[in-house]
Amino acid sequence: MKKSRFSPEQISRILKDYDQGKSSEELCRTHGVSRQTFYKWRSKYAGMEASDLKRLKELEEENAKLKRMYANLALDLEAARYIIEKKL
Questions:
Q1: For residue 3, what is the DSSP state?
Q2: Exposed, middle or buried, 41 (CB in 10 Å: 0-12/13-18/19+)?
Q3: How many CB atoms lie within 10 A of CB 45?
Q4: Per-residue pLDDT at 25
Q5: Contact at 8 Å (CB) between 55 and 12?
Q6: DSSP for residue 6
Q7: Separation between Cα atoms, residue 9 and residue 17, nearest integer Å
Q8: pLDDT tens digits, 35-74
Q9: pLDDT at 3
Q10: DSSP 23-82
Q11: What is the pLDDT of residue 47?
């Protein structure tokens, strides 16, 4: 999974600046993010504090790790089944 250039605190600060009245074009230009990224952040993280955002990112990373672990175990199980079938 690609690591974000921006910390949860930075994302939260950018979104708060937008809520306080700064234009999205100005924020995108000053922080070096695309409009698509800004609006994706806005739809995903609107109303969250930095601590909530940090916790959400941690949970997403943990979820990705668990999915990889499951995929590896499923492959091992499939290989074991294949070997057992060949022996019988």
A1: P
A2: buried
A3: 19
A4: 92
A5: no
A6: S
A7: 12
A8: 999 999 998 888 888 888 889 889 999 999 999 999 999 9
A9: 65
A10: -HHHHHHHHT--HHHHHHHHHHHTT--HHHHHHHHHHHHHHHHHHHHHHHHHHHHHHHHH
A11: 80
